[in-house]
Each structure stands twice: as C-alpha cells, then as structure tokens.
Amino acid sequence: MDHSSKLIDGYQIPIQRPPEIEEILSTLSRFNPETGPVLQDYVGTQCSTETYDIMANLALLKLYQFNPDLMREETVLNILAKSLTVFPEPDFTLCLYLLPPNLLSTYNSTASDSSIVPAAPVVTSDDSLTNSVHRLTYLNSLLEMAAFSTFWSTLASPVDEEYAEIVADVSGFDDAIRAGITRAITLSMRSIKTETALSWLNFKTKEALEKWVAEKMPGWTVEGDAISLKSEAEDALAPSAVSSSSSGKLRFEQLSRVIKRVYENQLIHH
Amino acid sequence: MHWLTFLQLFSIDEEQLLQQQQLFQHQLQLQQQQALPDAIRNFILYFHHCLKESNVYDLHGCYENTFNKLTEKFYKNTPWPDPQTVVSPLVENDQPFVSLYTEMYYRHLYAKLQPTLEDRFASYENYCLWFNYVFDPNSPTDLELPTNWAWDIIDEFIYQFNSFSLYRSRTVRKSHNDEEISLFRERPEIWNTYSVLNVLYSFIQKSQIKEQLQAIKDGRDPDEVAGEDGSRPLYKTLGYFSLIGLLRVHTLLGDFTLALNTMENIDLNKKTKYSRVAGAQFTIYYYVGFCYMMLRRYSDAIKAFSHILLFISRTKSFHNRSAQYDSVTKRSDQMYALLAICVALCPTRLDDSIHTTLREKNGEQLARMQRGGEESLPVFEELFTFACPKFMMLGPPDYENPAANIDPLQHHLKVFMMDVKNTMLAPTLRSYLKLYTTLNIDKLATFVEISPEELRSALVVFKQKSRQVRWTEGSLLDGDVVNVSDLDIILDGDKIDISEAKIVRKFGDWFLRNSAKYYAVQDTIANKNSVAEEGKENKEHGKRRERREKNAEKNSK
C-alpha cells in the first residue's frame, strides 16, 4: 500500500508519517509492547495537527489486544473520534472490529417510531469506556446514514453533554466532518437548497455558509435559495459503460464442440 | 559410612526400579509392535527411508497416496500407531522423522476422532520440537518436503491453534470443567498467539520470502536476495505458506487490513509452483475475499470468490476423488454464501455458471436479501454466521468472569450488521429508480413512505455506496475509487436524475452454452429410441469418464 496518502472519494489526505512510526509499522516492532507509548503519542499528534494515519492507529489497537493492561481509554476514544472524520470510509468499523467484544455487546440502537433514523442508545453501563464507545458508534451510524442534521444536534445535545466531550480532543473535528459532508454533497448533487445545506453543514448564518462554499467547494456558487454547481461543469452524470470488454467476441477454440458435433452428425447421417 | 551405604542402597534400588520399568516398557513396545500389521511396519520403514534419502518424489507418493490408503484400511476410526512407543523404536529414534510422523498422527486424530486436551498439548509440543529443529542455526536442514505436505503442516498448525483457542473459550464460558480450566491456567504458553505469530514471522524472515517475491515482481533473480537459508526449498516453501498463514491468523483476529497487507508481495494473477497446491489456493481466495468484504470492497470480494469458485467447479471431477472432498465442498458452500451477501449489498452481474449455481444454492436467501427491509436482516445474519471464519480471541479468556468472554463471532457479526442496516433501504430505492429517468423527491418519498428529508439522506447513501475502492494493480490494499453500480443518480435540488448503463449480453457465450444444452436434449431423445442399447452406452460412458479422470490426475502431477 502506498503509505504516503489515503484515498477518500478520490481526495488525497496527506499523511506525514514520521520515520520512527514507519519503522514500527513495517517491522515486527508493531507487536512490541514498548512501542505502545510511541504510537499513543502519535495519536495525540494526529489529534492536535489535523493529520490522520489509520494504519498506525490500527496497529495500536492491535497492541492493546495483546496487552489489555496497556490500553488507555482516552487514546481508544481519540482513535475512534478521528476515524469518524473520514466517513464514509469504513475506518470506524475497522477499529471496532479490533476492540474487546464486551465493549459493544450491550449496544442497541433504539428504533424510532417517527423516523428511519434510530434514537440515541440508552446509556446503561457503569463503565465509562463502554458508554463512550456506544456514543461514538451512534454518531458513526448517523454519518453512515447521512442523517447529518441529527448528527449535529446529537453532538450539541444539552441533555447529554458527553457527546461533545468525547470529540473535544480532536482539533478541527467540526470542520473535518463538514468536509466529509461536503464530499457527500458534491458527489451526489448538482444543487442543494440553502436551507438544507445550512442544517447539514451546521452553519448558523448564510454568511458562514457562503464563506465555506467559496473556500471549500470550487465550482459551486450560492444563488438565491440554493447552492449549485456552475453550469459549465455540469455533465457529472455521464452514463458509465459497464459493458464487459470481451462481449460478443468468441475465440475459435470455443467453437470446437459445435464443429465437432456437426462433423459427427454428418457421419451418422451419411 | 552409614550415610554412604544408605545412599548406595537407595541408588541401587532406584536403578533396579528404572531397569524394571525399562523392561516393562520394552515388553509393551514389543507387544504393540507385534500387533503392528506388516503393511504398516513396511510403510513406516519405507517412508523413513525416503525421507532420509530426500527422495521427494517417493515421499510424495507415501504422503499423498499410501498414507491415505492405509488409513482407509486400518485406521478409519482409530489413531495411527503411537509415535513414541511404537514408531520411534522402529526408526532408531530418528527425531526429524518421528516429529513429522507425529504431526501426521495428530492431524489424522483431529480429523477422524475427538482430540483430548492431552492430545492438544502434545501436538503443540511436537510442533515446537519440529520448528526448533528446522530453525536450529547450527544445522540448517537439507530436508526437503513435497510442497503439498509443507502446506498441510502450516495449515494444520493454524487450524489446531484456532481449534484450541475456541475450545478453551468455550470451556471457560461454560465453566463446567474445572480440571481442564486449571490446566489452561497452568499452561498459558500452549498455543499462545505470540508464539504462533512468531513461528510464521520467523519462517518469513528466515526465507527472505518477501524480498524474493519483490525481486520476482521487479523481474530480478530471487536467489540474489534469498541468502543461504532462503534458497533452500524447504524454507522457501514454508516461508511462502507462512504469508498465507498470516493472512488467515490476522483475519481470525479481526484485523482485516493487516491480513491483506501481509499478502502485499504475492501476485494473485501469477502462476507459481505454489498455486498448484489447491488447498492453499482455496485458503487465499476465501480469506482475501472475506477481508475485502469486511473492508466494504464488495466488488473486489466478488471477484475473488468468483475466481476460485469457477476454478473449483471446473476441477470438480478431480476433487471428487481426493481426501479433501468434504472440506472443499464446505468451503465452496461458504463462499457461495458470502458471494450472495456481497451481491445483495452490491448488485453485480456474475459469471453465468457461477450465477446459476448461486441461484441453486442460495437462491431464496439471495432473493430475500435483495428485497431489503427488516425481513432481510436475519438472512444476512444466518449466512454470515455460516460462512465466516472461526473468529477467535487473541489472548487467554477472562477466567475470573466467565460471562465476560463474549464470542468474537457475535462481536464481528454485530459490527458487520451495522453496515448492512444502513443499506436496508437501497433495494427498494433501486427498484423504483430503475423505472424512471427523472423523478421528484416528494413523489419517491410517498412511494417509499418516508419523509422527503430522510429520502434525501438515503439517496446520498445510495450514491456513496455505488462508489468503491477497487483493485487495479499493486498490493491487495491498493485501488482506485470507481463506480460499481449500473444505476447512477444525481440530485438537482428536489429532482433526481437517473441514468442506467445497459449491459450488453454476451451473445456468443449464450449461444454456445445453449447449443450444449440442446445437444444434451438431442442425445436424450436419441437414446430413448434405443433403450436396448442404453445399458451398453452407459457403461461405455462410465469407462470413458474413468479414463478421463485418470488422465486428469496424471496431468496434474
């Protein structure tokens, strides 16, 4: 794998992986408990510098599997929060697979009567890590369902302030999520109502939205009550040819059976 | 003086005791050896001889044919002769041979009988013994094993590791066998994950197999980087298979990224002498496909499963006769189940013969998954549980809180199902979208019976899921984001624009396949007219097939 960057919907997020981390990941040191603190610090760096390195984070979670005593709650939560920022990549899920099973065994998203978006899980455990993992898992499923308005309202929930607390370590968290939502918009839309964009991107004012569009959405403009892709760049929906390349073509050998049969039939009839 | 006499007396006593014991043991051995059928004794002696002479060709015969035939005849439901008391004296305690024999002894026992905890421990210790012998820096071994056998050793080593871990977790969770639990606690080093990984990584390092494969990729001579150990066939082979072993172990532990990463230097499209080992091929594609599925790279998973399933169906007549027939069938059923899951999550046109078999095997389940909705979820769960690898915990279980030891399968199933639940609406959307070229969100919302705002989100998800990373070249984790769906949408405010790529039918293939079917019908009709001759013809047909299979076998050697 090309370790220098990670592909997200065609966007490259650069990874500045220090040589000592590269050394750990490419050798058996990744199983050495002594590298735990190094990788842990690296998670801290990722949080404060808006960088992201899934391979290193998975290696640390693996190390925790081997040495449960080393596990630091804060770091696990930081890793999970960080992996939310690259949705809809499967990173969050990949981290979950490496967590101890008992953290998730009681997780149950509650179906909601009025909506297909599930309600927040009920906080029941007396273990704080379990509860925090449940909260993050819920946030992830909101992003995965593109329930962006609910995502923001949950994050800012006055009832459960823990949500905001869990992601607080990740600097630039809000903007990273906004960038993800922007990717979703530009992938699937030619225009979107300002009202929807405001709530999806969680901006209070139209000015803030306009600033975001100008900076982060090249080719898009705010016009009246909608933001849309400028017309010259509009043919995004070119029907892709899925036809298989070898369609209709046959190799001569494939006909051998037919030819043989014709030949045999002639023998029989004459 | 007193002291000395006493001591002497004591030591004499002990010596006598020892002698008596040895005599007894000897007699026991003789008895057991006398009970040994001549065919078995001769086989073991010849087997030993071949190994000593490094006669790989005859070793292959002993290992692949004679051993299985004798098993059928003498040891169908009982273990082979005991390695220590019976076989070892026969071959003058030749340790390397006894170790290899012991490995086969336990493999047979695991396959045909129920291993006791003692067996599990002893088998592990034998692996340690053999690996230590192979790794001993003072005597780089010139031993050469048939490729199949080397694969079976690595394969079985991981199987027993997996099996032990599952057995231990189960016993602790049920906490009904205190004696065994205390044995587990006393001996945490047995089948320890670190040790197992250590063995596999050591083979990889000693053989320099990664460097060798990289050299082959770059078109250089692998021997340049192989070093003294790496150019020995045994190390090279074990090193290569250890990479596949790691793929498997990391998958079992839930680390799908690292699993694929360990395969980075193996080019799946390239034929090597290892790709002739069918068992290794099945393992590679099953685990690679599974990892891709867990990484949500469904189109890559579908490609991997289709490739190997096609290979299995084409070589079916050959597997029919092999000892691994049952396990091949089970594996391929599992892969069809996984294929069904992937196709449900990512509608894809399959190879026609694969598609036909899939419909035969999992047709009804596939249809239910493709309809989506809440009712489809149990089908996903059922197929996943049936087809997934036997996930295991990395460390020893929590002995103090038996209830805290949750089956990792449940954990992985839960996480996987979260992904599935997010796409529950997709089949319904798809069926409506296919009917239109443009459609208003409000209108579709009334069809699907959700609010327009929820639908807008669902459509974003629909579009996102149509984009997947797909492998084109390089290592298995590489790939480009491509559109994998035949149905593409884009939202323009409240208007949905839809475009569907029409798939061109492969008329040539279709024509040929149906010609063959037509001939079969013709033959049936023709045969009806000559019922008298039918018997004769059938017999001849049978003979012809036998001949063909024999030829196939010969060629594959």
Automatic annotation (TrEMBL), chain A:
Where is this gene product found? Answer: Cytoplasm
One protein family per Pfam = CSN8_PSD8_EIF3K
* Major subcellular site: cytoplasm
Q: Which UniProt keywords apply?
A: Cytoplasm, Initiation factor, Protein biosynthesis
Which residue intervals define the domain PCI in the entry? Answer: 52-245
The cross-references to Gene3D superfamilies, in alphabetical order and at most eight, read: ARM repeat, domain 1, Winged helix-like DNA-binding domain superfamily/Winged helix DNA-binding domain
InterPro entries for the chain: ARM-type_fold, CSN8_PSD8_EIF3K, eIF3k, PCI_dom, Transl_init_fac_sub12_N_euk, WH-like_DNA-bd_sf, WH_DNA-bd_sf
Q: Listed GO molecular functions?
A: translation initiation factor activity
The UniProt entry's sequence similarity note says: Belongs to the eIF-3 subunit K family.
What does it do? Component of the eukaryotic translation initiation factor 3 (eIF-3) complex, which is involved in protein synthesis of a specialized repertoire of mRNAs and, together with other initiation factors, stimulates binding of mRNA and methionyl-tRNAi to the 40S ribosome. The eIF-3 complex specifically targets and initiates translation of a subset of mRNAs involved in cell proliferation.
Q: What do we know about how this protein assembles, alone or with others?
A: Component of the eukaryotic translation initiation factor 3 (eIF-3) complex.
Protein name (database record): Eukaryotic translation initiation factor 3 subunit K
* Organism, scientific name: Myxozyma melibiosi
UniProtKB/TrEMBL annotation, chain B:
**Protein name according to UniProt:** Eukaryotic translation initiation factor 3 subunit L
PROSITE patterns from the UniProt entry? PCI
Assembly behavior: Component of the eukaryotic translation initiation factor 3 (eIF-3) complex.
Q: Which PANTHER family match?
A: EUKARYOTIC TRANSLATION INITIATION FACTOR 3 (PTHR13242), EUKARYOTIC TRANSLATION INITIATION FACTOR 3 SUBUNIT L (PTHR13242:SF0)
The region called Disordered is annotated at 529-557
> What Pfam families does this protein map onto?
Paf67
Ranges annotated as biased composition (Basic and acidic residues): 531-540, 548-557
Function per UniProt = Component of the eukaryotic translation initiation factor 3 (eIF-3) complex, which is involved in protein synthesis of a specialized repertoire of mRNAs and, together with other initiation factors, stimulates binding of mRNA and methionyl-tRNAi to the 40S ribosome. The eIF-3 complex specifically targets and initiates translation of a subset of mRNAs involved in cell proliferation.
Q: Where in the cell is it found?
A: Cytoplasm
* Molecular functions per Gene Ontology: translation initiation factor activity
Q: Which InterPro entries match?
A: eIF3l, PCI_dom
- What organism does the record attribute this protein to? Myxozyma melibiosi
Family the entry assigns: Belongs to the eIF-3 subunit L family.
Domain PCI, chain residue ranges per copy: 304-495
Keyword set, alphabetical order: Cytoplasm, Initiation factor, Protein biosynthesis
**Lineage of the species this protein comes from:** Eukaryota, Fungi, Dikarya, Ascomycota, Saccharomycotina
